[in-house]
């Protein structure tokens, strides 16, 4: 029987549980970007409570990015010192931690919001260099890996999606070409740094002529071939894992993906209680579960679950923390 709090292997990393905490927004930094005591306290609670792996709040590349005001900053003078303290907190409890990079727009030097069809190859090289430099900064700050958000509607997800990308060069057309921009980044990071590379992807796209589930699996295989160490699922919209007592399509998809790749796959979704999570673990090939908003509502809820052998998150899935772009819960 699998259990949330099993000690498990995650690629080259050892986890104290199957739960991956995934961050979203960061709105509690001081003026200038420096971290406040509340942020250190939050990470202490998350790391000490039984979390297996921590994925940080989102970092943006550019101060002009759409979500920059709600993201954490890696371009201020105290970044390395501040985040060495954060990663030290995680490592004190033997919890690996990744820095999450997510950018919606990209400024190629000529257009602040250049899209996949319009960015020149010189701009692609500039983008790739900036992502690689972000990975190097994470490495300097003590992060065990980088998670590149290629899901939701972020820039690289649009680049990989045939709905947005109709290029006729080596960065457009078939799956391999649309993934090439990301694959080349991964290859350089893996060649030059000793860090885990996690890719966050969508299972499908609801738009007509958008990415299908089969295409998403093909994308994951290309990312694995390039050197990605793990895949984490997200989506533009994620509904409940269970629907009227039958397997939800999202859960059906993840089992197909797990069968298709030889690297860890993390399932995300609106899972809020220990019983349901353990049911998913024991009725499927899923090994790792990502949770986000429950950690906003109560950063150390896993400690109660572990002590009691059961539990339900106080998070009511109101989505205000996400929609209002804040790292605090409006109710709790």
Automatic annotation (TrEMBL):
Residues annotated as domain NADH:flavin oxidoreductase/NADH oxidase N-terminal: 115-304
Matches recorded under Gene3D superfamilies: Aldolase class I
Keyword set, alphabetical order: Flavoprotein, Oxidoreductase
UniProt-listed InterPro entries: Aldolase_TIM, NADH_flavin_oxidoreductase, OxRdtase_FMN_N
Molecular functions per Gene Ontology: FMN binding; oxidoreductase activity
Pfam family, one: Oxidored_FMN
Protein name (database record): 2,4-dienoyl-CoA reductase-like NADH-dependent reductase (Old Yellow Enzyme family)
């Amino acid at each position: 029987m699998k259990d949330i709090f099993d000690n498990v292997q995650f690629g080259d990393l050892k986890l104290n549980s199957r739960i991956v905490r995934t961050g979203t927004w960061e709105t509690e930094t001081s003026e200038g970007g420096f971290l406040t005591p509340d942020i250190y306290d939050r990470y202490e609670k998350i790391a000490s409570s039984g979390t297996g792996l921590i994925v940080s709040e989102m970092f943006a590349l550019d101060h002009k990015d759409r979500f920059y005001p709600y993201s954490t900053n890696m371009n201020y003078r105290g970044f390395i010192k501040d985040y060495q303290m954060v990663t030290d907190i995680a490592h004190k409890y033997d919890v690996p931690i990744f820095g999450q990079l997510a950018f919606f727009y990209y400024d190629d030097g000529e257009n602040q919001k250049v899209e996949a069809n319009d960015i020149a190859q010189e701009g692609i090289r500039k983008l790739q260099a900036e992502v690689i430099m972000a990975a190097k900064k994470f490495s300097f700050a003590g992060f065990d890996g980088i998670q590149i958000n290629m899901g939701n509607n972020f820039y690289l997800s649009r680049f990989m999606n045939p709905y947005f990308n109709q290029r006729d060069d080596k960065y457009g057309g078939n799956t391999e070409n649309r993934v090439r921009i990301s694959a080349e980044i991964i290859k350089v990071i893996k060649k030059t740094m000793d860090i885990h590379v996690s890719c966050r992807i969508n299972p499908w796209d609801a738009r007509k002529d958008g990415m299908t589930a089969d295409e998403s699996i093909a994308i994951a295989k290309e990312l694995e071939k390039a050197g990605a160490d793990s895949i984490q699922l997200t989506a533009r919209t994620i509904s409940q894992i269970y629907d009227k007592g039958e397997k939800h399509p999202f859960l059906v998809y993840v089992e197909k993906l797990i069968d298709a790749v030889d690297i860890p796959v993390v399932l995300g979704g609106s899972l809020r209680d220990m019983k349901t999570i353990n049911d998913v673990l024991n009725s499927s090939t899923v090994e790792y579960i990502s949770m986000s908003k429950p950690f906003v509502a109560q950063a150390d809820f896993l400690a109660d679950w572990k002590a009691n052998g059961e539990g339900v998150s106080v998070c009511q899935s109101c989505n205000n923390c996400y929609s209002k772009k804040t790292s605090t819960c409006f109710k709790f």
